[in-house]
Amino acid sequence: MSLFEQYRPQGLDDVVGQSAAVQQIKTVLARGWGGRAWWITGFSGTGKTTLARIIAAQGAIELGTEELDSQNLTPARLRDIEHEMQYRMLGEKPGKAYIVNEAHGLRKDTIRQLLVMLERIPSYCTWIFTTTKSGECKLFDDDTGGDAAPLLSRCIELSLVRDDAAFAKRAREIAQAEGVDGLPLSVYESIVAASKGNLRRVLQRIEAGSFKADAMAALERDYAMVASTKGERAEAQRQQLTAAMAKCKGGA
Fold first, then answer.
1. Higher pLDDT, 91 or 38
2. Sign (positive or negative) of CA dihedral 133, 138, 141, 145
3. pTM score, two decimals?
4. Which secondary structure element, helix H or strand E, spans residue 27, and what is its range?
5. What whole-number distance in Å separates Cα of residue 117 and Cα of residue 127?
């Protein structure tokens, strides 16, 4: 199992860097889980699928949750799903959840059918669409029929943000748990920034071992910035960076 999957948040209180979205979800869920649709946008690696799965798990077990690729979601498949939605699951969580990933790839004829279907979601079902910011823009740019805006109006919209500081702190915590830490938080902040806020990508680098090279490059860059600076503070920074580079070379 990858580090990203191993440490994927299982509940809303475990999600980092998305406090506003988490609070919005809690507020909506307090009014009920089913009979509604969600539209989650955000940069890659900021937690769209994670939040979608957490929302789904509030009312449906794993067997009652289906993840769909947007381009394979045809009108015919939607008709089959509408038939499936007539029946509840058995057990403590009888709900059904449908997660549509890369929603910007939805077909035009599928969007038109969704406009009708989302108006009559059963009280024990929920739909969750995820897409990137750029994908959402493309969806609107290509929307010659004017169907995209009505689709979003049928959903609760969540906009995820890039919180590099929170992601860096979490990456360091995971590195510590895996025994590959020993570097200052500023190194993680630099690498998260270089990865454009994609926490998944940072964890993949840690897992693949390329994080060491990334960390050394960040430390050397920081050292070069204070190398010729005078004063006690600059000297303290140089000492800290020198120690960190020694740890990095030693495999920490």
1. 38
2. negative
3. 0.85
4. helix 19-29
5. 11
pLDDT band at 229 (very low <50, low <70, confident <90, very high): confident
| Whether residue 52 has pLDDT greater than 60 | yes
Q: Flag whether pLDDT at 251 surpasses 60.
A: no
Give yes or no for a contact between 141 and 49, defined as CB atoms under 8 angstroms apart. Answer: no
CA-closest candidate to residue 157, choices 14, 25, 12 = 25
Q: Mean per-residue pLDDT for 101-123?
A: 93
Question: What's the confidence (pLDDT) of residue 93?
Answer: 93
Q: Please report the DSSP string for 186-247 in residue order.
A: HHHHHHHHHTTT-HHHHHHHHHHTTHHHHHHHHHHHHHHHHTT--SHHHHHHHHHHHHHHHH
DSSP per position, 133-190 = HHHHHHHHHT-TTS-HHHHHHTSEEEE----HHHHHHHHHHHHHHTT---S-HHHHHH
Q: Which CATH number, 3.30.365.10, 3.40.50.300, 3.30.530.20, 3.40.50.1100, labels domain 3-159?
A: 3.40.50.300
d(CA 25, CA 14): 14
Domain ranges of the chain: 3-159, 164-249
Q: How many CB atoms lie within 10 A of CB 147?
A: 17
DSSP 31: T
